[in-house]
Specification:
The chain is α/β, with parallel strands linked by helices. It is 38% helix and 24% strand. The chain is built from 22 helices and 25 strands. Helix 10 runs antiparallel to helix 11, helix 11 packs antiparallel against helix 14 and helix 14 runs antiparallel to helix 15.
């Protein structure tokens, strides 16, 4: 052994192992190594401390651990004759958690061998330190995302395959920098690939923006406007409309989502209504539509059902009138409301004319037919949404009148339908030529009402996921990015039924559990990880953890993330803005990093407001 190696070992040696308890190892520090820094080749080397990495030598195996704590014991028998300085009377011990080992020249996470008592322990030299933080696997390409917080100037790079071919979670309290981290990841990715033809063809990115943080006047956030599609949806004003194909519009699952249909009763009804070609044909022109209206009314009369009474006829005409605003149906409805009654003693309809005469059976029916002859329908050019709404209404009243469905089961769906159809007209358009060279789409939901903010993300994500599954193409990649993901993935919601909430969560849980097989990956950012389904959090592969103060959020992360050590969890409440812990499959060890800067014009719109600046 050369003199240089002997000198280096003597400088870098810090102590020896005194106990081993599973992954937890205790190390006794040599008393001459109690100073904060060591001098080696005219360089000051930071001595071992909490958060440092140490190397344990067991034969030819180099085991790597991380210092999670330290404590001291004072030598009670201390005398100045025995020790040259006061610091030598202190015995330091380190609590170390094992992380991995060096396999030849490469660092690998995991435990291959356990250390033994009296194994010598050393500081890592610069080369070894770099290898521990070398996260780029063979065949992968690096992406620089920031620098180590505790080692200024030490860049941290992750492999593009190991990061983006995975589910990513970005968590942190408001103002901690999570949206900036999300923007940084995709800023760097698009900077590297945005002009490559294969990237444009094979990769697709879809960002759901609840608060409008990724859109502005210039629309250059993350990447230039020419590289992306931007949809600023609104249920309040005339905003953009998201394109959907005719095939999607006539998909019963599409409407089951929009109308929040229950699985066992309302969803089968929607499927019957939308796939009813007989109804669809009769809605196509005015003559057949008029005959359809008359036939449904006369069917209700002939049914003579005391449970339905005359209410079913009045309700039917009122609903149809809303769909045909330029007709005179409301006038005919008012006439029938005044003259048509259901006799609760004889259990039959009766018609009372202006003179007060009562007519039953065929005479009653003749008077009603005469009134129906007065209906006039304008020449209406129905769009697809108008037709679908009419189909659902006719199917509903047909089922209720014939007794095929329970009114109590379906009426909540019909009540929701009016408002939902009005909202959906404002945010979607039918467009079959959906081919676009831009592979990045941002959908802003800032101006969308609370109900549609729940429904639209589920609707769009389910549509994208189903399309990707149908392709079954190993070269195609889809990344769904959801900022403020607790808005859609929350377990607790008073605005929806338990059954619908289960359906919503099960859909996203399927995407995160099965999506990898079809090239579908999720990137989730949230300030409330405790609100998100534990199943979803546990299926994430890479985590960027910013400051978390709420104890429930910290516990949610701790229960579901196996990659973090004790020290990293203790950092969470005190991380400064812009600093996060990177842990997961793309990083060999959890590291605290400062996220790198991106251009000002490409930052998200989430800066904290300056009250002094605005008030002075």
């Amino acid at each position: 052994m050369s003199d240089e190696i002997i000198i280096k070992d003597s400088i870098f040696r810090i102590g020896s192992v005194v106990s081993v308890d599973g992954r937890a190892v205790r190390i006794s520090v040599d008393k001459v190594k109690n100073s904060s820094h060591l001098l080696y080749k005219s360089d000051l080397i930071k001595n071992v401390s909490v958060g440092s990495y140490i190397k344990i030598i067991k034969g030819f195996t180099k085991i790597i651990g991380k210092v999670e704590g330290e404590y001291t014991i004072e030598d009670k028998g201390f005398s100045k004759k025995e020790y040259s300085s006061d610091k030598e009377k202190v015995s330091r011990s380190l609590n170390v958690s094992l992380l991995g080992f060096f396999n030849k020249s490469e660092f690998e996470r995991g435990i291959k061998e356990m250390p033994l008592i009296d194994n010598e322990c050393y500081l890592l030299d610069r080369v070894e330190f770099n290898k521990v933080h070398d996260f780029i696997r063979k065949g992968d390409e690096p992406l620089t995302i920031g620098t180590l917080t505790l080692e200024k100037g030490q860049e941290i790079q992750v492999g593009i395959d190991s990061l983006f071919a995975s589910h990513i979670g970005i968590f942190g309290n408001t103002g901690s920098g999570k949206s900036y981290t999300l923007a940084k990841l995709y800023f760097e990715l698009f900077k590297k690939f945005k002009n490559k033809a294969s990237f444009k063809t094979n990769a697709k990115f879809f960002l759901i923006d609840f608060n409008g943080e990724y859109v502005n006047d210039d629309d250059n956030i993350i990447v230039g406007k020419k590289y992306k599609n931007i949809y600023k949806l609104s249920t309040k004003t005339n905003g953009d409309k998201f394109p959907v194909s005719t095939e999607t519009l006539y998909d019963p699952s599409f409407w089951a989502v929009i109308l929040e249909a229950t699985e066992k009763t309302q969803t089968p009804f929607i499927r019957r209504a939308i796939t009813n070609s007989w109804l669809a044909q009769r809605i196509e022109n005015n003559d057949s539509l008029l005959e359809l209206i008359k036939s449904r009314l006369l069917l209700a009369l002939d049914k003579n059902d005391k449970e339905l009474g005359s209410t079913i006829i009045i309700d039917f005409l009122s609903e149809i009138d809303k769909c045909l605003p330029n007709s005179n149906i409301s006038e005919v409805r008012d006439i029938l409301r005044e003259h048509l009654e259901y006799h609760n003693t004889t259990y039959q309809f009766m018609y009372i004319d202006d003179m007060g005469h009562k007519f039953y059976s065929e005479d009653m029916r003749s008077h009603v037919v005469n009134d129906l002859e007065n209906i006039e329908l304008p020449n209406i050019d129905f769009n697809d949404l108008d037709k679908l709404k009419l189909q659902i209404l006719f199917q509903y009243y047909d089922d209720i009148i014939k007794g095929h469905s329970n009114r109590e089961h379906l009426s909540p769906l019909i009540k929701r339908m009016e408002k939902r159809f009005d909202d959906i007209r404002k945010v979607i358009e039918i467009k079959d030529d959906l081919i676009d060279e831009k592979n990045f789409t941002i959908v802003s939901l800032k101006e969308v009402n609370i109900h549609m903010r729940k429904i639209l993300p589920l609707l769009l994500c389910k549509q994208l996921y189903d399309e990707q599954k149908a392709k079954n193409d190993e070269t195609c990649y889809l990344n769904i990015i959801i900022d403020e993901a607790h808005n859609i993935l929350s377990r607790d919601s008073d605005r929806e039924s338990e059954q619908w909430k289960d359906y919503r969560l099960e859909t996203f849980e399927e995407i995160i559990k099965e999506g990898r097989k079809f090239g579908v990956f999720l990137t989730l950012a949230s300030q409330r990880p405790s609100d998100i389904s534990p199943t979803i959090i546990s299926q994430l592969h890479n985590y960027f953890l910013h400051r978390l103060i709420n104890n429930n959020d910290i516990l949610a992360v701790e229960k579901t993330i196996s990659y973090l050590d004790k020290l990293s969890f203790e950092y969470l409440p005190i991380l400064p803005t812009g600093t996060c812990i990177l842990a997961g499959l793309s990083a060999q060890v959890p590291v605290v990093i400062d996220i790198g800067k991106i251009k000002d014009e490409q930052e998200p719109n989430n800066k904290t407001r300056s009250l002094i600046k605005n008030w002075n």
